Each structure stands twice: as structure tokens, then as C-alpha cells.
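ok here's Methyltransferase domain-containing protein, seq below lol
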Amino acid sequence: MDNKSQNIPSIKGENMSESGYDDFAWLYHKHWDDFTDRVWPVIQNFVLPYAAKGCHIVDLCCGTGKMARRLLDEGYWVTGIDNSQEMLQWAHQNASDATLLCQDAREFQLDQPAQVIVSLFDSLNHMMHIHDLQQVFSRVFEALVPGGLFFFDMNTVQKYESRWASQNALIYPDHVAALSAHYDLKTRIASFDAAIFVKHQEAWIRRDVHLTQRAYAVNEIQQALVNAGFPEARILDGLQDLSVSDFYGRLFFWTQKLS
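and the structure came out like this:
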């Protein structure tokens, strides 16, 4: 990566910690970075019609910046926010003309309000308590202009119960990863673990990743939105409403700041 990718502003509150995605960023970029291509038609149909050309769009939990790149190419002013410096290094390569900020989604700050804020790829399921999710929604509400749009997706309880548990391996000449996923029905906590081995000259470097998500009921999400000042969201089911087979158990929420 070029040296410029290191120059990403970092604003961290006392409750923030190093992102679990830092050690995962390279593997994510290589094997999971096609979500933007699959979700882009949804953005075209349900977000862009409400976003005037040149307006300010924030990609909250922007990851490697692929969505930011698409939005920049459409003529928008884009800010990408993520809590992982390593993810943002990839974002700098993919969307170097976006404003990239290393901030916690619960505490993010903007110099200028946004007309649209999106948060995709079940990023908000990483909020492990309802008060954390509520905090994100409150920050989004404060960051939007009146009439501004908030569009996000989350995995459902049903998806975690039926699709999450798995074990898998990625085997390539220069890297190997052992992957496992588990869902606890009682706590509604989903975990993802990866042991990653990357070849470096004659040695192999190991990185261990542990990520967690929480499943929320739809009524919990709606109530958190209302508590933050939003009206209840319009909900789109990824499979039933959008007819995307691999969006089973993914719900999209569409709401606006009315005042």
C-alpha cells in the first residue's frame, strides 16, 4: 500500500477499542468484497432517487470503500467512516477522493451534515447491545439535514438461526484460512472466527480474528429508530421484496429525518 493510505484522520473516544476487522481486512478485501456489486441495484432504486447530484452521502461502516467508489462515480460528495484503520487503508486505494474518517459509529462526527447516510452489509449487527444501536441511530439523526434519508440493512434472527453455523476453509498458495461461525440461540449472539495464515518469504504469518454480531427483532430496531427521533422505517425483505436469493434473512430499512 502506498504511504498516503496511512494519512487517515482518527477520532477515538475513550470507549473505543481496536477494530476486530484490522487483522481481517486483507482477507475480507480478497474474498468478501463483492457485496457492493450485489446491493448496488437496491441503492439505485431506493436511495439515489432521493439524493440530488453532488449532495453529501455518508457511508457509515464503509469497509474497503467499494460503495464509496460507486457513489463518487455517480457525482456525490462522499464521506466514509469506519472503525478499522486497516479497512480504511483499502478504502483509500478504492476511493481516495472520498473523505475517510476512522471513527466509532456510535460517536462519529461530521464537519458538514449529510443528505443521505447508508450503512450496509449487516454492519450494524456488530452493535452488541440495544443501547449501542440506539446510540448509532441518534448520531445518524443528528448528522442528517431535515428531510435526510437513512438507509441500512441488518441480518434477521431467522438468518442467524438457519444460515449462520458453518465451518469452511480457504486454501491458496499464498494464504490459508480456517473459518467457523456459531450462533447462540439463548443470547442471540453470532460469532465468527478465522485463523489466517499468510505466506511471507519462507515463513507463514498467523492472524486470529474473532468477530461478533447480535440478532435484533424488528420491533427492537423500529423502537430504537423512534427513540432516536425517526419515524418507523419502511422495511424491504431482501428475498421477498427484492428477489435477491442470497439476501435471504437480510432486511433493508428506509427512513427519513422529518425535522
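fwiw The chain has two domains: 3-155+216-256, 159-213. kinda neat tbh
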